[in-house]
Amino acid sequence: MIQKTRVLVIDDSELARKALKYGLMNDPYIEVVGCAGDPYTARDQIVLLRPDVLTLDVDMPRMDGLAFLKKLMPQFPVPTVMVSAFTERGAKITLDALEAGAVDFVTKPTAGMGITLDAMLLELRTKVKIAGTVNVSHWKNKKKQMFESVIPKRTERFFQETLIAIGASTGGTEAIRSVLCEFPMDCPGVVVVQHMPEKFTRTFAQRLNGVCDMAVREAEHGDRVEAGLALVAPGGRHMEVIRTMGGYEIHLKDGVTVSGHRPSVDVMMHSVATCAGTSGRGVLLTGMGSDGAAGMLEMKKAGAMTFAQDEKSSVVFGMPKKAWECGAVDKLLPLSCIAGHVMDSCTLKAGPR
Question: Is pLDDT above 80 for 230?
Answer without folding.
Answer: yes
